[in-house]
Amino acid sequence: MTLTVKDFQSMKGSKPIAMLTAYNCPVARSLEKAGIPIILVGDTVGMVEMGFDSTREVTIEHMEYHVGAVKRGAPNTHVIGDMPYGTDNDTETALTNAKRLIVAGADCVKLEGPKLDVIEHLVKNGIDVIGHTGLTPQTAENFKKVGKTSEDAMRIREESKAIQAAGAFMLVLEHIPEDLGKTITEEIDIPTIGIGAGSDTDGQVLVINDASGIGDYWPPFSKQYAQVSETIDQVAKAFLSEVESKEFPNNILEFKQTGN
Ligand code: KIV
Fold first, then answer.
1. What is the pLDDT of residues 120-165, one digit of tens each?
2. Ligand 1 pocket, residues with Cβ under 6 angstroms
3. Residues of the chain with CATH 3.20.20.60
4. Which of 21, 108, 222, 226 has CA atoms 20 to 30 A from the CA of 48?
5. Under 8 Å CB-to-CB from 155, ≥6 apart: which residues?
6. How does strand 17-21 pair with strand 38-41?
7. Spatial contact of 174 and 135, defined as CB atoms under 8 Å apart
8. Atom of ligand 1 at shortest distance to CA of 207?
9. Which class for 142: exposed (0-12), middle (13-18), buried (19 or more C-beta within 10 A)?
10. Which CATH code fits 5-226?
């Protein structure tokens, strides 16, 4: 059963929230089967799946495509549609684009930075919103940890409170010091979901490609639970060798027996 905003809010301080990204149908199906309660169709898709150097290349059409695929794979899981760069710059543009993601299959949207008037406007128009502060890749100059000086830490704390006040029901905290993640989690009432924000946030999110070992670079704060790229390398090498030696398809027993 798809968990609601209320369900997630009641998990704060009682049950850690596990969020993973997904970009396609079969992966979303696996996440739902495993019981992951909330899936983020992140604009990281641009970097980890589409080969772009930044998330800024991702368009609303790309996100509609991926949100639709994920919802078809995980119809009973809460799906977040990430607002791509430049699609939430003002209240009306943001509402139009957020509605497109909802129509595509998202249950709520996530947007980066303290766009307080936009968050308020979306919430007023019935769209549930997740905030995102700390490192915000759409506008960051690099992917280094932020919030290390007391001024920057204070800015992120203030942003977090303002994003909550604007009506967001959950907040992603990316790549900030562990003690800052803890302070913010204690200071606000909505659940915090950390990525590189230490162990004291209300939940954790990982990019599925990082968690699965797909690709050749993974951020130091991520963990690889498998090495899927290595498996694909092995599959490709074995197939190449068997096609060249004509071992495949002759070594498929059923094919040889039935011809089907
Ligand atoms: O786009 C994304 O996948 C994200 C996560 C890194 C939190 O925003």
1. 999 999 999 999 999 999 999 999 999 999 999 999 999 999 999 9
2. 21, 40, 42-44, 82, 132, 172, 174, 195, 205, 207
3. 5-226
4. 108
5. 147
6. parallel
7. yes
8. 3
9. exposed
10. 3.20.20.60
